[in-house]
Specification:
about 15% strand, about 90 residues, elongated
């Protein structure tokens, strides 16, 4: 991870090794993961199995990512500053 606050990179361990992601790229992935978790929680509330739902609403996911991006980026920066990422 680079400590220059204007150009933050986060190292992510993958099956193929390590990948350095720019904070914006990493933040978008985190927003997508959170959006999927929201859908999963709603399915549980409604008693639906997420595996049985045969629709995907990519525009809704993109809207969620766009709306959540700046606050999620702030959260990620805070965690980087606290040393939560190596």
């Amino acid at each position: 991870m680079n400590n220059d606050k204007s150009d933050i990179y986060i190292t992510v361990k993958t099956k193929k090794g390590k990948e350095n992601m720019h904070i914006d790229h990493f933040t978008r992935w985190m927003c997508l993961m959170e959006a999927i978790d929201v859908v999963d929680q709603k399915c549980a509330e409604w008693g639906k199995d997420i595996e049985e739902i045969d629709w995907v609403k990519p525009i809704a996911f993109q809207k969620y990512i766009n709306e959540r991006f700046h606050s999620m980026k702030h959260d990620v920066k805070t965690e980087v500053e606290l040393g939560m990422f190596n």
